[in-house]
Write a structure and sequence with these properties.
It is a single chain. The chain is α/β, with parallel strands linked by helices. It contains six helices and ten strands. The protein has a ten-stranded mixed beta sheet, sandwiched between helices. The N and C termini lie far apart (47 Å).
């Protein structure tokens, strides 16, 4: 199947275009899509084959923390154990340029969890295209940043992604340049937030 390449308006995403992407995801597809910190790869949470394709494309080990891209905060507690302290902090920070590492709930397939720590990364992006796309689903996207092996930063240009990776993807959602500075990663498995990686989002312990 040829890779669908669509150019979506970053401020007013065309739903008719994104519905084509929804169809591809529902059929087990893997997509590249924009976030506030470069492009990411994604598939539906229950797409085991898609997750494996992403793992191979990124050359990730089985110890890598996958991320669930959620449409809003209400989904977070469904997929992670979130106490009152965590919830207040997350509510003040999201949507935003953060990835929170939390203890995964039973709703998260074991193959996506960190094998030792049983954690999962969770994000809520302010990117309007991805917010609109996620609105078509009642579950998050399994996601990783689109950083090619040997590179330090995520890819930032939709057409370049199409040219270099179109053979390995089912759709590329081009939302224009969306930055490249990574998210701030915070480990919140306990009641005190621990900074793992400083990125865009300011860290306020």
């Amino acid at each position: 199947m040829d890779c669908l390449y669509i150019n979506v308006h970053p401020e007013n995403p065309q739903e008719r275009l994104l519905k084509q992407v929804v169809e591809i995801l529902n059929k087990g597809g893997v997509i590249a899509y924009p976030t506030e910190s470069g492009y990411a790869l994604g598939c539906l949470l229950d797409n085991k084959e898609g997750a494996e394709r992403i793992r191979q494309l990124r050359q990730l080990s089985d110890k890598h923390d996958f991320t669930l891209m959620c449409p809003d905060l209400s989904h977070l507690s469904h997929y992670a154990k979130v106490g009152n302290v965590q919830f207040r902090y997350l509510k003040a920070s999201l949507p935003g340029a953060y990835t929170f590492l939390l203890t995964a709930s039973r709703e998260v397939p074991r193959r996506l969890q960190n094998p030792k720590r049983k954690t999962i990364g969770l994000r809520v992006t302010p990117n309007k295209i991805t917010q609109t796309l996620l609105g078509f689903f009642d579950k998050p996207l399994m996601s990783v940043s689109l950083i090619l092996p040997g590179e330090e930063f995520p890819m930032t240009d939709g057409w370049t992604i199409q040219e270099e990776l179109g053979h390995a993807l089912d759709a590329v959602v081009d939302g224009g340049f969306c930055g490249f500075e990574p998210t701030t990663v915070i480990d919140f498995t306990e009641d005190v937030p621990v900074l793992v990686r400083q990125g865009q989002g300011p860290f306020n312990p």
